[in-house]
Amino acid sequence: MLKRTIEISSQPTHLSMRHGQVTLSRDGELIGSVPCEDVGTVVVDHPQTTYTHAVLRDIVVQGGSVVICGHDHQPAGVLIPLGSHCQIVQRTREQIEATLPTKKRIWQQLIRGKILEASKVLDKSDAGKRLRVLVNQVRSGDPTNVEARAAKLFWQAWLPKEFAFRRDHDGDEFNGLLNYGYAIVRALISRAIVSAGYTPAIGIHHHHRGNPFCLSDDLIEPLRPLIDGCVRNLFLAGHREIDRESKTQLLGLLDSTTEFDGEHGPLNVVVHRYVNQFGACLRGETKTLDYPKRASSWN
């Protein structure tokens, strides 16, 4: 089922539940409603937004997520379901007991995918060609850190030469747009992980003890170029910071058509198949992990 994304940023809005519908009101007047089971993600970026307990409860019970943005308009926190999967204990055990060779093989595929998709963002440029050469140099576990070499090459060529850009997680302008897009997709992946019965904190490569979304950060790697390409297009269209148009474009990625395992579908649907295939890799049912990628029909 195609899930809906609700963004609240321009005006104060009150969210509540009524007869199974998420209702949105302003100044006491109803401005819209969405069936709760159709809600995938709610992004709140207006400081005067108010909610009832019931609407937050029902959104997560139905498998949705709520992303809260801070003063800088960046996602500051996310509310996701704790999970009601009937095999949650078994799934968590699969994560804990996964062998090192299995985890290293999965990481190899994720990084190969990330570099390949990054090369497509730069298309036929010299940097894009050099990135494609690096793909097959990624070995199990990426012991020689080809990922870092590819990242340096990618960011140096990401924008036209007359624009100096440095990837900085705490930076503004383009960095802010990138961080916003990553956070939205990270929340989507986290929701799919929990829905499948897995624990987001247990990663196969990322393992920082203070990070509750290590697995999300693993699985987002080959999807990052989707955001990178979108932000690059926004830049070329004149958007340099988070505004209404840029948020609309980045949130639109959740509904965009992607290709996975030979089939096409919206990212917010395909991501569940992606997580399920990851689980099959953990269990040894398959050694191949595909990932949602930009559909060939995209510009």
TrEMBL record:
<keyword id="KW-0479">Metal-binding</keyword>
<dbReference type="GO" id="GO:0003677">
    <property type="term" value="F:DNA binding"/>
</dbReference>
<keyword id="KW-0378">Hydrolase</keyword>
<dbReference type="GO" id="GO:0043571">
    <property type="term" value="P:maintenance of CRISPR repeat elements"/>
</dbReference>
<comment type="function">
    <text>CRISPR (clustered regularly interspaced short palindromic repeat), is an adaptive immune system that provides protection against mobile genetic elements (viruses, transposable elements and conjugative plasmids). CRISPR clusters contain spacers, sequences complementary to antecedent mobile elements, and target invading nucleic acids. CRISPR clusters are transcribed and processed into CRISPR RNA (crRNA). Acts as a dsDNA endonuclease. Involved in the integration of spacer DNA into the CRISPR cassette.</text>
</comment>
<dbReference type="InterPro" id="IPR042206">
    <property type="entry name" value="CRISPR-assoc_Cas1_C"/>
</dbReference>
<dbReference type="InterPro" id="IPR002729">
    <property type="entry name" value="CRISPR-assoc_Cas1"/>
</dbReference>
<dbReference type="Pfam" id="PF01867">
    <property type="entry name" value="Cas_Cas1"/>
</dbReference>
<dbReference type="InterPro" id="IPR019855">
    <property type="entry name" value="CRISPR-assoc_Cas1_NMENI"/>
</dbReference>
<dbReference type="GO" id="GO:0051607">
    <property type="term" value="P:defense response to virus"/>
</dbReference>
<feature type="binding site">
    <location>
        <position position="221"/>
    </location>
    <ligand>
        <name>Mn(2+)</name>
    </ligand>
</feature>
<keyword id="KW-0051">Antiviral defense</keyword>
<keyword id="KW-0255">Endonuclease</keyword>
<keyword id="KW-0238">DNA-binding</keyword>
<keyword id="KW-0464">Manganese</keyword>
<feature type="binding site">
    <location>
        <position position="206"/>
    </location>
    <ligand>
        <name>Mn(2+)</name>
    </ligand>
</feature>
<keyword id="KW-0540">Nuclease</keyword>
<dbReference type="GO" id="GO:0046872">
    <property type="term" value="F:metal ion binding"/>
</dbReference>
<protein>
    <recommendedName>
        <fullName>CRISPR-associated endonuclease Cas1</fullName>
        <ecNumber>3.1.-.-</ecNumber>
    </recommendedName>
</protein>
<dbReference type="GO" id="GO:0016787">
    <property type="term" value="F:hydrolase activity"/>
</dbReference>
<dbReference type="InterPro" id="IPR050646">
    <property type="entry name" value="Cas1"/>
</dbReference>
<keyword id="KW-0460">Magnesium</keyword>
<dbReference type="GO" id="GO:0004520">
    <property type="term" value="F:DNA endonuclease activity"/>
</dbReference>
<feature type="binding site">
    <location>
        <position position="147"/>
    </location>
    <ligand>
        <name>Mn(2+)</name>
    </ligand>
</feature>
<comment type="similarity">
    <text>Belongs to the CRISPR-associated endonuclease Cas1 family.</text>
</comment>
<comment type="subunit">
    <text>Homodimer, forms a heterotetramer with a Cas2 homodimer.</text>
</comment>
